[in-house]
UniProtKB/TrEMBL annotation:
Compartment list: Cell membrane
Transmembrane segments: 15-37, 49-66, 73-90
GO cellular component: plasma membrane
Top-rank taxon: Bacteria
Main location class: membrane
Name by which UniProt lists this protein: Potassium channel protein
Domain (RCK N-terminal): residue spans on this chain: 114-239
Source organism (scientific name): Oceanobacillus zhaokaii
């Protein structure tokens, strides 16, 4: 029974550890044998073991050498067995290191950290977001899940990549979804809008099923799918199509701006959006009055969220109500 349990434990040990155990056992065996065969040349078992390691590793210091025929035969057996094992052990470590690097690049390794951001979908928006996040906080831990990307260079993008489908529990487990801080789902613009939104909603359902409290930011392309995304468990909905349509309308109906819009976005990237509930003293106060009060604390009030709907740049005389969420820009 004991032997059977030992075998089960041994076969579960990684191959590198097995090799190391085998090498140590063989070196101790040959070191003990050479001590008893030539006690004068090898006065202690430790000297015998030292000779065994030096000989098997082909270092050959020459401080201990067998003199008798029996001792030399032991040396030959040691070189044929121990030398090969040590060479295989070193090559296994090297190949294991290379394989690990390849697994990281190809998204096959699970993420073991906590308090991280999970981004779903690899595209230009995600690439720029990673750049901005790491510029603001180089220590931020980011996990990227994508099913189309085959590999990513860690030296170019210092993130943890997982290749797979975010609708599958196994992939979310590899991303350590239970201990993540928040999730951002970006729409797949290669697919049509309905297919992209369907995938986003399915991924939201899977994420919410694995972590019922995590904030989920979902990009939805079709207005008709917003309610479905909210029912699936999305915390925040980003309607990128609406924003781009408004931007196109602005450019079509206004004269050409001196400053390119990209520069305006760059300026906004140096600000931080902040959401917080309206304070009791601001309830029943006008939007303009509250805005004047908040700007003294470096908060630029740009709108409110009421009943899960954004109201950006509302009328100055709009009265704030209990339960409103104030949306501000804060200088970094």
């Amino acid at each position: 029974m004991i032997i059977k349990q030992f075998k089960l434990i041994y076969f579960r040990i990684p191959i590198i550890i097995k090799l190391l155990i085998t090498i140590v056992f063989l070196m101790c065996f040959f070191g003990t044998v050479i001590h008893f065969i030539e006690p004068t040349q090898f006065p202690t078992i430790f000297e015998g073991i030292w000779w065994a390691f030096v000989t098997a590793a082909t270092v050959g210091f020459g401080d201990y050498v067998p003199l008798t025929t029996s001792g030399k035969l032991i040396g030959i057996l040691l070189i044929l067995t121990g030398g090969g094992l040590i060479g295989f052990y070193v090559s296994s470590i090297a190949s294991g290191t290379i394989k690990r690097e390849q697994d990281i690049e190809h998204g096959r390794l699970a993420f073991k950290g906590t308090g991280h951001l999970i981004l779903v979908g690899w595209n230009e928006r995600t690439r720029q977001l990673i750049k901005i996040v790491l510029e603001k906080n180089p220590n931020e831990k980011i996990v990227l899940i994508d099913r189309t990307l085959r590999h990513i260079s860690f030296s170019e993008y210092p993130i943890h990549f997982i290749n797979g489908d975010a609708t599958e529990d196994a992939i979310l487990t590899k991303a350590n979804i239970r201990q993540a801080e928040r999730v951002l789902l970006t729409a797949d613009l290669i697919k049509n809008e309905r297919q992209a939104d369907t995938y986003t909603i399915l991924a939201t359902v899977a994420i919410r099923g694995n972590n019922e409290n995590i904030p989920i930011i979902a990009e939805i392309l079709s207005k008709s799918q917003i309610e479905n995304a909210l029912r699936a468990g999305a915390t925040t909905i980003i309607r990128s199509n609406d924003f781009m349509s408004a931007l196109f309308y602005h450019e079509l109906t206004h004269s050409l701006a001196v400053t390119p819009f990209e520069d305006i976005l760059h300026i906004l990237s140096k600000q931080q959006f902040s959401h917080f509930p309206v304070a009791p003293e601001f309830v029943d106060k006008q939007f303009a009055e509250v805005s004047h009060h908040l700007i003294k604390g470096d908060h630029l009030l740009i709108g409110i969220i009421r009943e899960k709907k954004y109201n950006i740049h509302p009328p100055p005389d709009l009265l704030l109500e209990h339960g409103d969420i104030l949306v501000t820009l804060v200088r970094l």
